[in-house]
Design a protein that fits this description.
Blueprint: H1 8-11, H2 24-36, E1 41-45, H3 52-64, E2 72-76, H4 83-95, E3 104-109, H5 116-128, E4 133-139, H6 147-152, E5 153-157, H7 163-177, E6 180-181, H8 183-193, H9 197-210, E7 213-214, H10 216-222, H11 228-239, H12 243-256, H13 261-274, H14 279-297, H15 302-323
């Protein structure tokens, strides 16, 4: 079947725990539960695209075999996040008996989206039906899960997928799909994904749909991401005291790539951190960038805020020249 008719993220989703990419500690602990044929309530925490949902499904497959679908229910807490969904929907699932298994699993994705009241109600449901039902909660921020639920769960922390492990898996996908990817294209995928494997695979499929040879240009274009060197150019131009020239670079980034203010801020942060400037300068620039980021999340105009930041960089650059 042609790859154009398939979603690669689903096609290459791990089917067993052994296929999970670079989460060795997590996988080793989960395999221990599989050997015992028993699990406690679990809490998966970590950045998006690191294998939390895949691990939950793979665990169910390894535990229940062919009957896993009858004993595994996936719900997304961000769809219905109030107390009613816990009192009715989740409770109804939890109280029904498992099929050919000692217990069933309810996987609650994005559990940190549940309101405090809903989490309080969930705590009691987890206790009442623990003999026939186990909960796996998934979240990006474990701090948003109330302490009583955390204490009832075995907590698993997922880390961003490291570049080398991501490259290896992406090359395997390219080989299977007949896609040629250049070295700079592979580096671009790692850069734009930021450890999010799902984002990397989606970007790869999008670029492959345009051309069977994938390079860095295709990746940056498909993900509406600026090249790192372009952000570096804008920073250096502003710090050299050339405000209008730096503003022209910003115009090009936002028009050609369709970047939002938040996108530019996020990439600027990466470039400042990885730059060769001294630590005091990095602290100063990141402190001001944090203010810009806060204002943008509060609804400020992105062009005005970014122009103000470039003006700040220009002022700092001229002040540094004056000292010399």
């Amino acid at each position: 079947m042609s790859i154009e008719y398939e979603i690669w993220v689903e096609k290459y989703r791990p089917k067993t725990l052994d296929e999970i990419v670079d989460q060795e500690e997590v996988v080793a602990r989960l395999k221990g539960y599989v050997e015992q044929k028993n699990i406690p309530h679990l809490l998966f925490a970590g950045p998006p695209g690191t294998g939390k949902t895949a691990s939950a499904i793979a665990l169910a497959r390894d535990l229940f075999g062919e009957d896993w679908r009858e004993n595994f229910i996936e719900m997304n807490a961000s769809d219905e996040r109030g107390i009613d969904v816990v009192r009715h929907k989740i409770k109804e699932f939890a109280r029904t008996a498992p099929i050919n298994a000692p217990f069933k699993i309810i996987f609650l994705d994005e559990a940190d989206a549940l309101t405090a009241d809903a989490q309080a109600a969930l705590r009691r449901t987890m206790e009442m039906y623990s003999k026939i039902c186990r909960f796996i909660l998934s979240c990006n921020y474990v701090s948003r899960i109330i302490e009583p639920i955390q204490s009832r769960c075995a907590v698993f922390k997922f880390k961003p997928v490291p570049p080398e492990a991501m490259k290896k898996r992406l090359l395997e996908i390219c080989e299977k799909e007949g896609v040629e990817i250049t070295d700079d294209g592979l580096e671009a995928l790692v850069y734009v994904s930021g450890g999010d494997f799902r984002k990397a695979i989606n970007a790869l499929q999008g670029a492959a749909a345009l051309n069977r040879k994938v390079d860095a240009n295709a990746i940056y274009q498909i993900t509406a991401t600026a090249r790192p060197e372009e952000l570096k150019e804008m920073l250096e131009t502003a710090l050299s005291g050339k405000f209008m020239e730096a503003r022209e670079v910003l115009d090009r980034l936002m028009v050609e790539y369709g970047m939002s203010g938040e996108d530019v801020v996020s990439q600027l942060f990466k470039e400042i951190i990885s730059s060769s400037m001294d630590e005091k300068m990095k602290v100063l620039l990141i402190d001001k960038l944090g203010e810009v980021d806060f204002r943008l999340t509060e609804g400020a105009h992105d062009r005005i805020q970014l122009d103000a930041y470039l003006a700040f960089l220009t002022t700092v650059g001229k002040a540094m020249k004056g000292k010399k």
